[in-house]
Design brief:
Blueprint: H1 2-28, H2 57-69, H3 80-104, H4 109-140, H5 143-170, H6 198-213, H7 217-236, H8 242-263
């Protein structure tokens, strides 16, 4: 029991640190250069920044990573209004992970396989969407679509590094290992660590940018429904624990939201 308590505290501490990274990066976006605070600030005017270009992506990516990984020192009180509930929800999810995957989610291999196929298809669609937007904008003379494609792709790249970094910090076993005990800091997990869910983090990074660029109810409903479908099918496919997809989705949304607020330029008045 003592060992469990120690490991559990280490899990929560690691999660809190990682959550602060992304939340702090959102706050730091105001200083590199000044950008509106999320989520309630008005959209920036077209003159507020440089147009989004592919050439700027490498530089932006390096700066974004610097902001993300050094952001805990910039977390402010108002970020706690969503970090604390997220931390509590993750705590509850981790404690229930084993029972959920053992007693609630079916272990029927055919059922699991079908859900994995669905999750892969949905993921492919959401990760392929930035390419479609970019192509439509580049060859159709649509700067808004072009920006959407570039920023969504940039968010996915940032999310990929964040996701891999956290995986290497936590080394969590997959539900298929050791009776779905979900042990952390198991070197055998390696790059295939379960925490957080890669699919969830990457699709929510992409979806967040698209929902911000095209904030109509049908776009938000569509992309977030697809992203939710990914996290559900990852669990039903016995690929991830509920806490894996919860943290992956939250971090993905924060990364996508940060990239949009930091680099967004297009505005209806700029047409």
């Amino acid at each position: 029991m003592k060992q469990f308590s120690t490991n559990f505290l280490r899990v929560i501490s690691g999660f809190t640190f990682a959550a602060l990274l992304t939340a702090g990066a959102s706050a730091h976006a105001q200083a590199w250069p000044p950008a509106p605070y999320i989520p309630d600030a008005p959209k920036p005017q077209a003159q507020a920044g440089e147009p989004v270009t592919l050439r700027a992506v490498p530089t932006n990516f390096v700066k974004d990573q610097g902001a993300i990984w050094t952001s805990p020192i910039r977390v402010r009180e108002r970020e706690l209004k969503y970090l604390i509930p997220l931390g509590l929800a993750t705590t509850v999810a981790i404690t229930a992970d084993h029972q959920t995957m053992s007693d609630v989610v079916s272990r029927n291999q055919d059922f699991n396989h079908k859900n994995v196929q669905v999750s892969n298809a949905l993921t492919g669609g959401l990760l392929g969407a930035p390419v479609v937007f970019f192509a439509a904008g580049q060859f159709g003379g649509n700067p808004h679509a072009r920006e959407t494609g570039i920023l969504a792709g940039e968010a996915v790249l940032n999310g990929l590094v964040v996701e891999q970094g956290i995986k290497l910090m936590t080394w969590r076993e997959r539900p298929s290992v050791d009776g779905a005990k979900g042990k952390f800091w198991q070197s055998s997990a390696g790059w295939d660590s379960s925490f957080p869910s890669s699919h969830s983090l990457l699709v929510w990074s992409s979806a967040a940018v698209m929902a911000e660029e095209y904030p109509s109810w049908w776009m938000k409903t569509g992309v977030y429904t697809l992203a939710t479908g990914v996290i559900l099918t990852r669990v039903l496919g016995q690929q991830h624990f509920p806490s894996d997809v919860l943290v992956g989705s939250a971090f993905g949304w924060m990364v996508g939201h940060y990239v949009y607020k930091k680099h967004h330029h297009w505005h209806p008045d700029s047409r």
